[in-house]
Amino acid sequence: xxxxxxxxxxxxxxxxxxxxxxxxxxxxxxxxxxxxxxxxxxxxxxxxxxxxxxxxxxxxxxxxxxxxxxxxxxxxxxxxxxxxxxxxxxxxxxxxxxxxxxxxxxxxxxxxxxxxxxxxxxxxxxxxxxx
Length: 131
What we know:
Blueprint: H1 9-17, H2 20-25, E1 31-37, E2 40-47, E3 50-57, E4 66-70, H3 72-78, H4 90-97, E5 100-103, H5 105-110, H6 112-126
Parallel strand pairs: 1-4
Antiparallel strand pairs: 1-2, 2-3, 4-5
Helix pairs in contact: 1-6
């Protein structure tokens, strides 16, 4: 059985708010993204390019615009500080490692730079610098 993985939602939300690249690439974006890590579900709501909320949800019975996720084992690889081949981003992980990227593909592709920043901040939060 795979080890569990819980996304640090508060750290990720704060990281995005403080990230100047995110502020630039997410401007004007309004979206609800459902992330799933194995059986765990998360909702990231973006309003006018700002993270309105990011929270773990008990089930998947909520509306979303974009769906991104995969097996826990794949998340453990994609969140490594230096991920292995085809785990560097969500799309290659979809092709080679069982990730899902779906929903409103027009929004997903139009704001893919913002989605890439989300992953970069997730990765930074999963691998904090040691003092």
